[in-house]
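> tool_call: predict_assembly(chains=two)
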Amino acid sequence: MTSDEIAEYFERLREAGARLKKRPSGEVIEVLGTVLERWRDPDSVWRRDLEDRLPAATGFTAPMIREGLRRALADWTGDALRELAIRELGPIDPVGAVSNRSVSGFDTTAVLLAGSIPMPSLLALIAPLALRSPVLAKAASRDPLTPHLVAQSIAEADAELGRCIRVVDFAATDEGCTRALLEADCICATGSDATIATVQSLVRPPRRLVVDGHRLSIAAVVPPASAELRGELAERLAVDIALWDQLGCLSPVAIFAVDPEPAHAAALGEAIAVALAKAEANWPRGSIAANAAHEIAQQRAEAELRRAAGRAVEIHASDATTWTVIVEDGPEPRPAPLHRFIRVVPVPDPAHLLEAIQPLAAHLAAVAIEGFGEQTPGLARTLASLGTSRVCAPGSMQSPPLDWRHAGRGVLAPLARFGDIEAIA
Amino acid sequence: MSADPRRADIDRRVLEWMREPRWSYSEKRFEELALELLAFQFEHCEIYRRFCQGRDQTPGNVKTWRQIPAVPTSALKEVELRCFPAANTVHHFRTSGTSSDVRGTLYLDTLELYEASLLPTFRRFMFPEFLLPEDRAPIRVLAPAPSELTDSSLSHMFGVVLDALGEEGSGFDVENGELLFDRVLTVLVEAAASEVPITLCGTAFAFVHLIDHMSERGVLIGLPPASRIMETGGFKGRSREVPRTELYAELKRVLGIPAERIVNQYGMTELGSQFYDSVICGPSEPRRKLGPPWARVVIVDPETGHEAATGQVGSIVVVDLANTGSVLALRTGDLGRAILDGFEVIGREPGADARGCSIGADEILDRNSQ
């Protein structure tokens, strides 16, 4: 791949985009809704192809991928896309309709994908097209598969729309190609904060830049007194932790057990350990790098030493590094090695919870809460006001609705150009 | 010497080994001392005893030094590991760290082993040509003197090295936190003119500063061929990172010292002994880290906790007989790989955690506090 080739792709995309703009936006959204429905269907050729080939491309295991996709795509329907468009962009106008508001996409949109979880890539490619903006996407090095399959599925549904999307592969260190890609009129970049900073430094105004840096999630629950209810809650939390091997921004890195009695946090930790062992049997964790295994072993050994020093720390872990539960005795911030490594952190009440998560507030994607009774609405609003863009129930963290305002923004609106037309005599 | 007679006996035997003029890498001798030291530390350090018991690895069932339970060095930030009464502490070293780090502390009731270990090791790997005890060389240190940084094990080490091996004119070139560029450059220019080889020691980042300073002024110095450099430490918490190959290429460009005469030292506050690149003592052999006979490294598979297969990347565990007053087996935070009779330290694998879109909370906290 060369920067000249990227420039040439942009030329072709502009031409295809000009034709696309002549089509009614409602028609384009209908086509994209059909594409989403195909991805929802576990028997579709696209879904099967992705499930077959993603393990080799990403290191995730096939059973985990199947379960992750099943849960995540369940509600991503064509209707959900239509409702999202109406909610964020307003009524879908037929071409030529006179309105006091104009909504359009940019002539070209560049999408820099990151990570290896397929749903964000699917949505990132569909969103600009919903605004009839042609897309040039750079595949993530960790998932060179999903964007190509998504592009093919769009082309199969509608050849003209297929000509409005192109996926390219080049190394993130290739500055020439990166600069060429950033010549798009609108740029959507996902990645580490370092990647985002690099993109921000390279984008030349006037261009729309929509960025998503790294985020994390947590859960905060009141541990149920009943062993049965505790086990049931632990199973849902284990789903949130195990899916995508805890590597998504919606994966909890810590579970705050909000209860004045620390023993209840310990009991919850034990139940989560049982649930994670079960999850490992059903949806095994994928392979991990030596560095990640090293970090898990290091954190386990540190916890062992804290326990040996007399602190009330409990450790539940698999023989290898496949899952780990550390029940801490205080809310000090500690490393999160991920890959199904969870800390259960006791805090006596919601006030201490908010104090403990304050340092993370600006980076919170989702917080799963449960067991707060009448305090639930107030706590949810407080968490949202801290910057959390999603407050949900345990067990649903990996199934965000299509219209979840990731990073507190909309899905389509940040990629749109709005024009308000006032009454003129 | 320790007040505890059993410990004093172990110290005496370890010191004896350290002071022998010729090194012998006796496995049997190491095994015996290591297992004896494990038993002593198990008995005298309650935290370590509980740690071992928690793993069911106690003097009763540990049969080889390779099985000795290793504590993570990072845990010294939170727990005190010592095998002597606190009142007997004569010195302490603190780990370096970024502004957000809690610093770990190593308490010592004697500096005798520490100093006895470092000197022959430095001499062996930096000056293998020295034949006589009185052999000395001009050494400049790009780090603060121990009087300025009393709790730095690195400054202490350099102090001991200068006292024992530094010729007249040797000294420290960091004062009040400032690298004294003019003084360093004057010494280096004089060394180049007089064709007397010089040895430069310091942290990797101090050398980066020196390179930057010389580059900005267009200063290039061709030091005499037998000159050498010892650099140590990483770039954590620094404003920028420079890959070692780039650092060495720049050092050659500005000082004329080739990579074959630049030694990276692998050491840490928590260890009484250090490991050095083999390039000067074994120039025709592959570059690898080597240490003294009384300190050994085992590369551990982090998945199984057992010794890694040859060539496999794993966690670096050091068993160091110089650590008689604390804990002899330490699990470092580094990954490494065995090479012949030594090892190499390898960095974190790029993008190891980049599969998804999450991030470790520690990284975020680290950034927030800076």
